[in-house]
Task: structure prediction
Amino acid sequence: MSKQYYTTIGLEIHAELKTNSKMFCGCLNNPDEKNPNVNICPICMAHPGTLPVINKKAVESVIKVGLALGAKIADFTEFDRKNYFYPDIPKAYQISQYKFPIVSGGKLNEVDITRVHLEEDTATSKHDRGDYSLVDFNRAGVPLMELVTEPVIHSAKQAGDFGRELQLLLRYLGVSEANMEKGQMRVELNISISDDPNKLGTKVEVKNINSFKAVERAAEYETKRMTDLLEKGKGNEIVQETRGWDENKQSTFSQRSKENANDYRYFPDPDLPKLFLSKVFNIEKMRGELPELPEAKRIRYRSDYGIKDEDIESYVSDPELALWFENVASLLNDKNEIKIASNYITSDYLGLKKTNLNIKLPNTNNFAELVIMVSQNKISSRGAKDILAMIVIEDNSPMTIAKAKNLLQKNDEGELKEIVQRVIDANPNVVATYKGGKENAIMSLVGQIMKETKGSANPGLVQKLLKELLA
Result:
């Protein structure tokens, strides 16, 4: 019988910071630059005799992240040299932080954070030339934030969800675009399994992960690979190593044995000053200036609007849509109308947006008018969808459109009663089936009445009249 194994995951996440210039020089920080080796200078190319200068904005950005995580902001911090030789490191060392990171502790999405520190990014290696590689130094020296979690994640989904939440947080703070497709955010998995929930197994690091879905699939793959090894027994031990993720094969592959911290021979960079952050930044003022963060917005939306969690996530992930929704909500009369509005936004409007990316958010007054017309049964759900498809293209009053297109619901009982009776008289078989106990047969009659009134009859009123006349 197979043993039960417990998965433990820690994440290391790098995010390029959104600053005008690089971390230690004045070169442009432009992730969209297409031409290689344009944004470079003697400093980021490590020419002899050059001296780095710290980018204050980058330090400020990491402090903001720490405050948003509820973490401890260091008073004293310094930069270290992380020594290793690789073609994408022009100095043969990376300026990073080791013993004294800017941020310690904190929590996000119920995951404990170990630290957040600041370093410089490496150059980009291009391996698409066949038998040789090229290096583009535009990215060398770009400010890079590294966040390390505690090993407290126990499922692939939890790992993916943490990454998504961190991406949201960085965007809300305005410190990083965190676009994984552009390499502005990179996730590395540290994963182990053990048959004892209180002990960690041999750790494997997985790199080259370029999406949150890939984070989840890599975690699932490694869990299965390591489980299979342990099940096979002696001679099939898990090796501590760095592995890469192959998106095409949906599997990991061995890259190298895992380095330890002492392999990098860290020591304080003698060219950079020690930093006493409280002398440079007003930390408490920065704390008070933080924007509303994703989790706070979720709590407020549940309390103020009472809408579904799925709807809330649509707004949390799209601040422009969220602001527009709030403006619409301010024009409505109660939570019921707000729920109706949210349903049309997240299902119908976003559905239209998927088919035509050029459509715009409708005028808030027009959309609020449409919602009020629905809540007052002046138009049907079908009519509302048709009108919405029009007001996302042109600025027009829903009431004007409804009158012109004959979409206003008929709520006159006397007028509708005649039509209902006519349909009943024309369908004796359906009536007999209904009276025989098959209550769903009434919907056939509703459909015919709606067809005869070209969708303008109030369906609720139609059903009420049918049941009265068939009683």
